[in-house]
Sequence to fold (553 residues):
Amino acid sequence: MNGQTQMGGQPILVLPEGTLRTLGRNAQHANIAAAKTVADAVRTTLGPKGMDKMLVDSMGDVVITNDGVTILEEMEIEHPAAKMLVEVAKTQEEEVGDGTTTAAVLAGELLKKAEGLLDQNVHSTVITKGYKLAKEKSLELISRISRNVKPEDADILKKIAITAMTGKSAERASEHLADIAVHSVKMVMEKRDGKIEVDTDNIQIEKKHGGSIEDTELIKGIIIDKEVVHPGMPKYLKDAKIALVDSALEVKETETDAEIRITSPEQMQAFIEQEEKMLKDMVEKIAAAGANVLLCQKGIDDIAQHYLAKKGVMSARRVKKSDMDKLARATKGRVVTSLKDISKEDLGYAALVEEKKISGEQMIFVRECKDPKAVSILIRGGTEHVIEEVKRAMDDAVGGVASALEVGKVVAGGGAPEAAVAKGLREIAQKYSGREQLAILAFAEALEVIPRSLAENAGLDPIDMLVALRTAHDAGKATAGLDVFSGKVIDMWEAGVIEPIKIKTQAIKSAAEAAEMILRIDDVISASKLSHGGAGMPGGMPPGGMGGMEGME
Fold:
């Protein structure tokens, strides 16, 4: 019956005719099935032996990737509950920059374990309460097994970067790329009140195909995707004094409607000469301040270009605002909005500014700045798909190193922390009686999906591997994890597989919260309009409502 009640034999329609509604256990099962399907889609990409996905859109554009969040964002996901798993991966990406697959897979597994409990008539409220408890205990346990890391620990930071890239196509050049990731983060990090802060936006990652992955380089400065405006200007300047200007080197139009009456050719000539003089004065001001490079956020008039070229000032125009801000951080210059008061103090410094042609496009490189607080990484690779994937790997590596330094704690990888937390949760569960204990044990089992998936993706027997892993942890080896290359349980810390603690804590937090949210839903109604003005079904619900995921139940 669809939203109608029987009263004196007369049906009363509460919801309009044709409203789709899924109730109770059916709604829960449909939601869980949808979430599990999404988690399974990325599960095979986990770990060093994880496979890649090829996503093809209706236009025939192709994305080949191993990155969890990229796969989930590119996939056309219709189901409202499945979209929540995409949110989990996005949160992980924004907060940490790595571990997106882990977060999505964990959320899917928590729901899968909850389904088993629902079938045993454990109420979803009891499950969510147990999950909440288990989540808090997990975070405590992870903190206990973590180790401290400081900016001086270059070796550990490099291992974090390599771990983040393992399994992606950038792996073969990971040593070189890891060094770049670590150096870039250490350059832009800042200490405030004894805390380290890293804004990864200050690491600009540019990609240009051509060359190979090994040609990727770190530039102690900024790359500007512009060319020098005039052929008569120098293309290579050492010891550059850089003026950053946020105003146009053009004669301004008057703000109000004005009419200038010119009655003779002499007046016309005087008018043109006056305009030229104004532009010449602007250039003089820049040259007088001692600048030999001008980077302008707005336009530069042709006449001004001519005078700048005569003065030997290398110039670029219409530089993006975001690039201007980074240039100021890199060169220690100030962005001036008025040329009237430009002075020597406003200029930035770079040991070298040059224009280079990279894969057919001219770019300006501002290099070798003194103690730059914004840097660039130029990624090279054979094809477009390769550099796209290297960029994603670089994002993960930079995010991993940055979050390790910000929180200051790291854990071993390879499924070791998950196995250690699962062991701890099993011990804690003994203190609880009744059904909550079942939920805590389910949480512990769900965590083991990470080492299980690592084993499965490497073609190893997951049961044998889990037993070996549990045995090692029961013997007190808290850093024992799975070496998928040898198929043995080894000390992951010694093997150099290290991850920032934030990857794990954020994945557990967001996965548990998403699972709790989905488990609390027992009724799905297709709304005609939601408060945010979206017409039609919420979140693009499939035709046929929640049952629209045929063959999935």
